[in-house]
Design goal:
Helices cover 39% and strands 24% of the residues. By secondary structure, it is an alpha+beta fold. The strands form 5 sheets. It has an 8-stranded mixed β-sheet, sandwiched between helices. A 4-stranded antiparallel β-sheet has the order 12-14-10-15, covered by helices on one side. A two-stranded antiparallel sheet has the order 4-5. The chain is elongated. 48% of the residues are buried.
Length: 446
């Protein structure tokens, strides 16, 4: 028995070593990947408008021998590389940037401005790291195409649009992603951020992030002269009371051990200081990680919003529009455990850390909901020295979506490529049946 265990362990170690990309492999593809990163960072495009971004990625993947289909679900890209019998494994990257003005001071900082869907002139920045994700997938795609003797099966690369507005994954699925193309046995993705130093990756088995609900609330009042508030019903005052009352949901209604976030991200009302407007609009983001808590919080928001309006004598009830939403991402625990060893072999045991679930959200969950087991992991993006200094001082580095967010590209990009290649080679090393047997069968949230 002991001998059998020793032989099994030796086999696993040898297998992991064979799947680990060499430093030479990563270095050979790094210049092209880095060049794409610089190009994308300087030329970002907003959600659902990633035409040039998608074309650049598609062109490079087609040049590597992938069978590329463009305009899937809008600007989405699907690239397939078949290499004999075996599993089908999907690796996804996002394409879109954000309406944020870059203030990093980098020599290659974005200076792009464009019109958003509402016709407003807005700045554009890759403030969430999707440019680094695309650069990583190019480096990974190149290594995989040039080392087909190290894996077998079908590699499916996805360039997904509109992640930031929680629409791209659903649009690709609605456009036949799983019927026009092979259905993956496993879906993989990563996300860069400053919560880990560059060079490290984080693994979270089970629940990875949160459910997200975007709400637009319109509160109605009665306009009038700012000098005569008694002749009007002020929707701004109602909105202010509503905002404060909403903060009691997480602190006073949700059980302390549970997770809930209710954030009012904007309030829009009025045009002049001495005019009481007819209405005010609030924009909310709501985050939870259990369906029953999600239901409780959304109901509480509706109850409080309507009650505050009624208490103020509003002429009509407020409207509450849930215009975006996505479920949380769930990592198959057995799959996460399997790939931990793979990443430790590729990066070093000290470079792979356990990570608590995060409060962010994203629509990768739409793929998981199709019964596809998921491995979604974190890629460190913080300059290691600055990370250590911030940790010692008890401060936080700029987060994703900040105008100051700038990953430490080297070594983050090296690490992203090495991690993706190691994971893909491992998943594409046996049969589809063997791969399914290793997983917990838990792609859905328990």
């Amino acid at each position: 028995m002991k001998l059998a265990k020793i032989l099994l362990l030796a086999s696993l170690v040898a297998s992991a070593s064979a799947q680990t990309p060499t430093s030479k492999e990563v270095e050979n593809v790094y210049p092209d990947a880095h060049a794409l990163y610089l190009d994308l960072h300087q030329n970002p495009e907003l959600s659902a408008h990633e035409t040039q971004t998608a074309a650049k990625l598609a062109s490079r993947l087609r040049g590597l021998g992938y069978e590329v289909t463009e305009h899937v679900g809008g600007t989405g890209v699907v690239a397939i590389l078949k290499n004999g019998a075996g599993p089908t494994v999907m690796l996804r990257t996002e394409l879109d940037a954000l309406p944020v003005e870059e203030k990093t001071g980098l020599a290659y900082a974005s200076k792009v401005r464009t019109k958003d869907d509402a016709g407003h002139d807005v700045p554009v920045m890759h403030a969430c790291g999707h440019d680094l994700h695309m650069a990583s997938i190019l480096g990974t795609a190149t290594i995989m195409a040039h080392s087909k003797d190290t894996w077998h099966g079908t590699l499916m690369l996805i360039g997904q649009p509109a992640e930031e507005i929680i629409g791209g994954a659903k649009a690709m699925l609605d456009d036949g992603l799983l019927t026009r193309f092979p259905k993956p046995d496993v879906a993989v993705a990563l996300h860069v951020g400053n919560i880990l130093p560059a060079g490290e990756v984080g693994i979270t088995p089970g629940v990875f992030n949160t459910n997200a609900d975007s709400l637009r609330i319109t509160i109605y009042g009665k306009g009038g002269h700012g000098s005569a508030p008694h002749t009007a019903i002020d929707p701004i005052v109602i909105a202010a009371r509503t905002i404060l009352a909403l903060q009691t949901i997480a602190s006073r209604e949700v059980k302390p051990q549970e997770m809930a976030v209710v954030t009012v991200g904007y309030i829009q009302a009025g045009t002049k200081n001495n005019i009481i407007p007819d209405q005010a609009e609030l924009g909310l983001t709501v985050r939870t990680n259990k369906p029953e808590v999600r239901k409780q919080v959304l109901a509480a928001i509706a109850r409080i919003t309507k009650a505050e309006a009624e208490a103020a004598g509003a002429p009509r009830p407020p409207t509450i529009d849930r215009y975006e939403g996505t479920d949380l991402v769930y990592n198959d625990p057995a799959l996460a455990q399997r790939l931990r060893g793979v990443l430790e072999s590729a990066l070093g045991k000290d470079k792979v850390v356990n990570q608590e679930p995060i409060t962010g959200s994203e629509d990768f969950s739409y793929f998981v909901e199709q019964g596809i087991p998921s491995f979604y992991f974190s890629l460190g993006g913080a300059d290691p020295e600055k990370y250590a200094q911030a940790k010692a001082a008890g401060t936080m580095l700029p987060s994703n979506h900040s105008s100051l967010f700038a990953p430490d590209v080297d070594p983050a990009l090296h690490t992203g490529i090495a991690a993706e290649v190691a994971v893909l080679r491992n998943l594409l090393s046996g049969s589809a049946e063997e791969l399914r047997k290793t997983m917990a069968g838990g792609s859905a949230v328990p």
